[in-house]
Design a protein that fits this description.
- Its main location: membrane.
- Residues 108-393 form the ABC transmembrane type-1 domain.
- This is ABC transmembrane type-1 domain-containing protein.
- GO terms for molecular function: ABC-type oligopeptide transporter activity; ATP binding; ATP hydrolysis activity.
- By secondary structure, the chain is α+β, with helices and mostly antiparallel strands.
- The chain has helices spanning 4-7, 33-37, 92-97, 103-140, 145-194, 197-202, 205-247, 249-296, 298-303, 307-359, 364-405, 481-488, and strands spanning 45-47, 73-75, 418-419, 424-425, 439-448, 456-465, 470-472, 496-502.
- Helix 7 runs antiparallel to helix 11 (364-405).
- Helices cover 61% and strands 8% of the residues.
- The longest helix has 53 residues, at 307-359.
- It has 3 domains: 4-82 and 427-502, no CATH class; 84-248 and 369-409, ABC transporter type 1, transmembrane domain (ABC transporter transmembrane region fold, Up-down Bundle), CATH 1.20.1560; 260-361.
- The structure holds adenosine-5'-diphosphate and magnesium ion.
- Magnesium ion (MG) binds next to helix 12.
- Adenosine-5'-diphosphate binds at residues 201, 449, 451-452, 457, 475, 477-483.
């Protein structure tokens, strides 16, 4: 452990007792009911090694860290193991704070983002100018390359600039995402290595690693990806808004009212539709499960003459599926009609007003530009709705990760809160780790493993190991010898009683 922890960047003080080398234990039997219970069979001899002085942490030493001279021994806390303090539900703010240490990178990304958005918003403008020049030149009979060379060149520059700036912005966000991912994983790993052994007894390794891999990946990736999309969309919408205002205030106002309403409505419909589809799929899976259950135990079904009831069970699940599908079919009419018709309706309203404006002298190429802007408006609001859905999903993953990061280990191994700046835990143990001289004692210990709370392993156990003496802990397999050593090593905290590690 001593060698392992610094590897993840956090040298730490260890529990005061090291049990390396030959196993040691001492029994001064009279006080020990455990030993008496085993009929004095405990005889395994070993030596009490000289205890290493706990590794002090660099930097500021907490006053708690200094050995308490007045107290001859440190009593272990009698904290029930696994006193989980689940993390608060993560908010979007908490997720975003993951990116804060990279504020300078975010700033640089934002500069390129604004440049890219401006270039991209210029494209419809130059496109309409190019087309306008061609149409006007042709109708006036003076169309040459010179007529549309300038707007075309500007279009080319805007497209090239847009592509280059957008790619640099994207690259920044990839790096920001990777850094957030590393930071989150490091923080989680730091927290995991601090957890009490009871936590590892009761939590499946698969679950822990899935948080370390999938959940971390989802939260960190999603947050950087969506911040990218969100910022890009908002800036894009603002620049688009400026260009639209430049062309027509009335049209801009109407578009900014109709487009978001239509987009959000169709998104909502889409979600409802998806939820319905999932429900019907679930019903189908239920029906399959019923069939599988019956078919795989056909002899039992026959023995109890259960064929009719099994058939009825299968049919009733399928019936539920059919009703859901009928409901989905009705909903589909409303869904598709509205999602297909509403945007067209919105477009038609805008075109009607465009026609009206043209009658009052607005040049037709400007309308063309406006149509392109309408398109980007649609895409923009659609992206914002997606960002919302993605962030909600990322919050689910982040909740599981933050819960573990914020879990306080039970017992004596408590550390300071996370160092937000570097994503690592500060190397400072806040609980006393006095130098010990080798006197060990357990007194009045009641203990059961966190994984099997209902099964007491030690009851009212007291034993003492004086320093420098060869002592023995002997007993049948499963008698609790290793458990005693585990308590000395502070791998577990007793339910009652004290673990003493005297200084002298
Ligand atoms: N991590 C654990 N979780 C739950 N029960 C445990 C754990 N380790 C040991 N036990 C149980 O505690 C009892 C004492 O085990 P142990 O201290 O290993 O005995 P010994 O070292 O004397 O053979 C046994 O019944 C064992 O099954
Ligand atoms: Mg053992």
């Amino acid at each position: 452990m001593a060698a392992f922890l610094p590897e993840i960047g956090r040298p730490t003080a260890l529990p005061s007792v090291h049990c390396g080398g030959p196993c040691f234990a001492a029994l001064t039997a009279p006080r020990n009911r455990f030993a008496r219970g085993l009929g004095g069979q405990l005889r395994l001899a070993a030596t009490v090694p000289k205890f290493p002085v706990p590794v002090a942490t660099p930097g500021r030493r907490s006053s708690l860290f200094r050995p308490r001279r007045s107290a001859p021994s440190t009593e272990s806390r009698v904290t029930p193991p696994g006193d989980e303090e689940p993390g608060k539900k993560p908010t979007v703010g908490k997720l975003l704070r993951l990116l804060l240490p990279d504020a300078y990178l975010l700033g640089a990304a934002f500069v390129f983002l604004v440049l890219a958005a401006t270039m991209q918003a210029l494209m419809p403008h130059y496109l309409s100018q190019t087309l306008g020049a061609i149409i006007d030149g042709q109708s006036a009979g003076v169309l040459t390359y010179r007529t549309f060379r300038r707007p075309l060149l500007s279009l080319l520059l805007a497209s090239m600039g847009g592509a280059i700036f957008a790619s640099i912005r994207g690259a920044f966000f990839i790096v920001i995402g990777a850094r957030a991912s590393v930071r989150l994983r490091t923080r989680l790993m730091n927290s995991l290595t601090e957890q009490d052994i009871g936590f590892f007894d009761t939590t499946k390794t698969g679950e822990i690693t899935s948080r370390l891999t999938q959940d971390c990946q989802k939260s960190a990736d999603q947050v950087s990806y969506n911040v990218n999309i969100f910022a890009r969309t908002v800036v894009g919408l603002l620049v688009t808004l400026c260009f639209m205002l430049y062309y027509s205030r009335t049209l801009t106002f109407i578009s900014f009212v109709t487009v978001p309403v239509i987009v959000l409505l169709s998104k909502k419909y889409g979600e409802l539709m998806q939820a319905l589809s999932e429900k019907t799929q679930q019903k189908l899976a239920d029906a399959n499960a019923v069939a599988e259950e019956a078919l795989s135990s056909m002899s039992t079904v026959r023995s109890f003459a259960g064929e009719t009831s099994e058939k009825a069970r299968f049919a009733s699940t399928l019936d539920e599926y059919y009703h859901l599908e009928r409901h989905r079919a009705k909903f589909y009419i409303a869904y598709l009609t509205s999602t297909m018709a509403l945007p067209q309706l919105g477009n038609c309203v805008v075109f009607l007003i465009m026609g009206h404006l043209c009658m009052r002298g607005m040049p037709a190429p400007s309308l063309l530009a406006f149509v392109f802007y309408l398109n980007s408006l649609n895409d923009g609001f659609s992206s914002i709705a997606d960002v919302y859905t993605n962030i909600v999903q990322a919050l689910g993953s982040a909740a599981r990760v933050f819960e573990l990061i914020e879990r306080k280990p039970s017992g004596s191994l408590r550390v300071t809160p996370l160092d937000e700046e570097h994503g690592a835990q500060k190397a400072e143990v806040v609980v006393a780790r006095p130098a010990v001289a080798g006197h060990l004692a357990l007194s009045g210990i009641n203990f059961s493993y966190p994984a099997r709370k209902g099964r007491p392993i030690l009851r009212s156990l007291s034993l003492e190991c004086p320093p420098g003496k060869v002592t023995a802990l002997v007993g049948p397999s499963g008698g609790g010898k290793s458990t005693c050593i585990g308590l000395f090593k502070r791998l577990y905290e007793p339910d009652a009683g004290t673990v003493d590690q005297a200084e002298s």
